[in-house]
């Protein structure tokens, strides 16, 4: 059986030509404390969660916004916590401090710092994908390149710089936010699978000008 081909550095010029990856589950927007309580009760029954945040972009020097959105996804359901409306409720803090369920993020240290500016808490069981990719020889750290590398699909970043504090998030924003959180689960599970099975070949590219060499793992 053919091993999966992965690259230490994925060619970003071909990403836009790949099939698009999108979250196909249900998306729920959380705008009240009671909704947050119900969402967290559900999420804390799940075996694994993907997490991400969004912040309203600033186009003015010296203007900085707080984290607007916390998205938390299972394989099939994603909750979008609109922190600019709910604040850091006791339920949300309970979720973030949970030490049992693995919560998978990417460059999550930065997200945690942003969340703790809203309300201090003791981070629970968080796993950063960036701490694991190098174990199988991948040098890229961004979500889009990692997903293209491991799944041959493109995650669109077109909504990244939209206004995450608008009164009502549009469908494109909701799908973008949910996809990013869900993708973290997919990436982590595939990384763990490859790490444990060795079922991959690493195509190592030292620089743009050198010929690729394939290393079987």
Question: Topology, pairings included?
Answer:
Blueprint: E1 4-7, E2 26-30, H1 33-43, E3 49-55, E4 67-73, E5 77-82, H2 83-86, H3 90-97, E6 103-105, H4 108-116, E7 126-128, H5 143-151, H6 171-197, E8 200-204, E9 213-216
Parallel strand pairs: 1-8, 2-5, 3-6, 6-7
Antiparallel strand pairs: 3-4, 4-5, 8-9
Helix pairs in contact: 1-3, 5-6
Short description:
The chain is α/β, with parallel strands linked by helices and 217 residues long. It is 31% helix and 20% strand. It contains six helices and nine strands, in the order ββαβββααβαβααββ.
Secondary-structure element order, N to C: EEHEEEHHEHEHHEE
Beta-strand content bin: 15-25%
Largest sheet: 6 strands, mixed
Low-confidence stretches: 209-217
Choose one word for the global shape: globular
Range of helix content:
25-40%
What integer value in Å does the Rg equal?
A: 18 Å
**Strand neighbour order, sheet with most strands:** 2-5-4-3-6-7
Coarse structural class:
alpha/beta
Intertermini distance = 14 Å
Q: Please report the total strand number as a whole number.
A: 9
Mean pLDDT score, rounded?
A: 93
Total of helices: 6
Task: Tell me about this structure.
- Helix content is 31%, strand content 20%.
- With 217 residues, it is an alpha/beta fold.
- It has a six-stranded mixed β-sheet with strand order 2-5-4-3-6-7, with helices on both faces. A three-stranded mixed β-sheet has the order 1-8-9, with no helix packed on it.
- Helix 4 (108-116) links the parallel strand 6 (103-105) and strand 7 (126-128).
- The protein is globular and about 50 Å long.
């Amino acid at each position: 059986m053919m091993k999966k081909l992965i690259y230490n550095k994925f060619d970003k010029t071909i990403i836009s030509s790949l099939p698009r990856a999108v979250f196909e589950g249900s998306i729920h927007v959380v705008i009240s404390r009671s909704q947050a309580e119900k969402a967290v009760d559900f999420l804390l029954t799940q075996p694994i969660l993907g997490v991400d945040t969004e912040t309203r972009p600033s186009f003015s020097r010296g203007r900085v916004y707080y984290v607007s959105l916390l998205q938390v996804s299972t394989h099939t359901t994603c909750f979008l916590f609109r922190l600019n409306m709910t604040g850091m409720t006791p339920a949300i803090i309970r979720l973030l401090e949970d030490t049992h369920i693995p919560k998978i993020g990417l460059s999550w240290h930065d997200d945690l710092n942003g969340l703790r500016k809203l309300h201090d808490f003791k981070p629970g069981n968080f796993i950063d994908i960036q701490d694991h990719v190098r174990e199988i020889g991948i040098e890229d750290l961004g979500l889009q390149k990692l997903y293209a590398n491991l799944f041959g699909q493109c995650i669109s970043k077109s909504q990244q710089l939209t206004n995450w504090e608008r009164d009502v998030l549009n469908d494109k924003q909701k799908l973008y936010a949910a996809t990013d959180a869900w993708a973290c689960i997919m990436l982590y599970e595939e990384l763990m699978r490859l790490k444990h099975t060795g079922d991959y070949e690493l195509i190592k590219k030292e620089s743009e000008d050198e010929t690729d060499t394939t290393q079987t793992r």
